[in-house]
TrEMBL record:
This is MFS transporter. The keyword Transmembrane helix applies. It is a multi-pass membrane protein. Gene3D superfamilies: MFS general substrate transporter like domains, Multidrug resistance protein D. PROSITE patterns: MFS, SUGAR_TRANSPORT_1. Its main location: membrane. It comes from Kitasatospora terrestris. InterPro entries: MFS, MFS_dom, MFS_trans_sf, Sugar_transporter_CS. It is found in: Cell membrane. Keywords: Antibiotic resistance, Cell membrane, Membrane, Transmembrane, Transmembrane helix, Transport. The chain crosses the membrane at residues 22-48, 60-79, 91-108, 120-139, 151-173, 179-199, 211-232, 244-262, 283-305, 311-331, 343-361, 373-395, 407-431, 451-472. Residues 25-474 form the Major facilitator superfamily (MFS) profile domain.
Length: 504
């Protein structure tokens, strides 16, 4: 048996007065989360330059983006459970080192296939750092104000990375596209060095013991990988093609097999009973709609501003800056806001702001101006993400035992990535169908408007889920307490209950 070094959670993480070591731990984890989110969005602006330099076709360029999403979204569940079984610190350190190496490889290669491979490897690494980092926070900071504050800072760093990635990419691409891959390397190495020193060790006794669910890992990971691959490729192959329908059928078979295995194995990869926690289940469903709707919206805005209005990549990046800036500025304050109002109240308000921002963009036209069209939506999206993103992460990990925090973290991150992949693929199909393949301004608008309606509808579904959750929480709070036995006339069971109480 190994002995663990004292964890910050033991003495300092139960209140919001944190030691420098505890702050350092949080900064390290935030840096990794920032890099993970940054990499999702930063490569998009650089794609034209990459295609020209490496002579890649449009379909090959798509896989520069999709390769990362495939590795990230497909392996998150496995990454989360690996953190629980193998040790959160160990998994985080190894995965962050792989992320740095893959970033360096991506910036140096001169071959499209190697670049796509490096992107996939980075996605795999992120699939292990994200749930490991989130579960380190949820087991280091006690549930309540301390954890809420830490998660608010952590998740807003992720949202800021996703939003600011476009701005950084615009700046770096103007120097050279390779810098979009090389820039994360020194940051990752610096975070790795501090992580060795600061991250708390986990005693062997704190990790769940037993067998490894190999069959569940194969079927569950296979289902997720194939699902992300199928929806990514469906636009090119056709949604009703034999290839797409056949792949979806295999996904269904793998998913069914996974559920059967998890319900029968003694040590499942995903304990299905975790979804009996209604707050966790609703949080994961909301996460699908939040990230899915935003991924679709960002794709529409990118095409609209660059193709139809003729904006440069850098101009477009700065146009989206207000949303990211609002999220970043709110980072240190959101913990107190969550403590005061609770996730049950904040989630509906945040998702409503997102839906309103998407709906306002339906006014887009051939000559729309930034102050009247783009800016109001960016402000609403910034407010929405600032409220909803920390709240959904807190809700998805609350009431979960420490030994399953990696699983809970992997689930919510999987929800984000799978939602993003599916909604983005459907959004792309709607744009293509609406425009009829035409390039005229009117044809483009005919594609963007129904796609915006789709995105707004997805956000509305998320809003409905949060409102149902709020109603259930209010009903639970208003329910009368269980009746207290009347011991004035003791009979049978009351006498036994009274004896138990007296012993306590």
């Amino acid at each position: 048996m190994t002995t663990a070094a004292p964890s910050p959670a033991d003495t300092h993480a139960h209140d919001t007065h944190w030691t420098p070591r505890l702050w350092g731990t949080l900064v390290v984890l935030c840096a990794a989360m920032f890099l993970d989110a940054l990499d999702v969005s930063m490569v998009g602006v650089a794609l034209p330059s990459i295609g020209t330099d490496l002579h890649l076709s449009t379909s090959a360029l798509q896989w520069v983006v999709s390769g990362y999403v495939l590795g990230y979204g497909g392996l998150l569940l496995l990454g989360g459970r690996a953190a629980d079984l193998l040790g959160r610190r160990r998994v985080f350190l190894v995965a962050l080192a792989v992320f740095a190496a893959a970033s360096l490889l991506g910036g140096l290669v001169d071959n499209g296939a190697l670049l796509i491979g490096a992107r996939f490897l980075k996605g795999v690494a992120a699939a292990f750092t994200a749930p490991a980092g989130l579960s380190i926070i949820t087991t280091t900071f006690a549930e309540g104000p301390a954890r809420n504050r830490a998660l608010a800072i952590y998740t807003t760093c992720g949202a800021s990375g996703f939003s600011l990635g476009l701005v950084l990419s615009g700046l770096l691409t103007s120097v050279g596209w390779r810098w979009t891959f090389l820039m994360p390397v020194p940051v990752a190495l610096l975070a790795l060095a501090f992580a060795f020193k600061l991250l708390p060790r986990q005693a062997d006794d704190d990790r769940p013991h037993g067998g490894y669910d190999v069959a569940g890992a194969i079927t569950g990971t296979g289902a997720l990988l194939l699902l992300v691959f199928t929806v990514t490729e469906a636009q090119g192959a056709g949604w009703t093609s034999v290839r797409t329908l056949g792949s979806l059928a295999v996904v269904a078979v793998l998913a069914a097999a996974f559920l059967v295995i998890e319900s029968r194995t003694a040590h499942p990869l995903v304990r299905l009973g975790i979804f009996r926690n209604g707050r966790v289940a609703r949080a994961n469903l909301t996460a699908v709609t939040i990230f899915g709707s935003y991924a679709g919206f960002q794709f529409i805005v990118t095409l609209y501003l660059q193709r139809l209005l003729g904006w440069s990549a850098l101009e477009m990046a700065f146009a989206l800056l207000p949303a990211g800036a609002l999220v970043a500025l709110s980072a240190t304050r959101m913990g107190a806001v969550v403590d005061r109002f609770g996730t049950t109240r904040l989630l509906p308000v945040g998702v409503l702001a997102l839906a309103a921002g998407y709906a306002l963009f339906l006014r887009l036209g051939e000559h729309s101006g930034y102050p009247t069209l783009v800016l109001p939506s960016m402000v609403l999206l910034g407010v929405g993400f600032a409220l909803a993103f920390p709240s959904v992460n807190i809700a998805a990990t609350s009431g979960v035992a420490d030994e399953e925090q990696g699983l809970a973290s992997g689930l919510v991150n999987t929800a984000f990535q799978v939602g993003s992949a599916i909604v983005l693929a459907v959004t792309t199909a709607v744009i293509t169908a609406g425009s009829g393949g035409g390039e005229s301004p009117q044809a483009q608008l005919d594609g963007y408007r129904p796609a915006l309606l789709l995105v707004t509808g997805v956000a509305a579904v998320g809003l409905a889920v949060t409102l149902v959750g709020a109603a259930l929480e209010r009903r639970r709070a208003a329910a009368p307490a269980a009746p207290v036995p009347d011991y004035r006339y003791p009979t049978g069971q009351n006498v036994a209950d009274a004896q138990v109480l007296s012993e306590r």
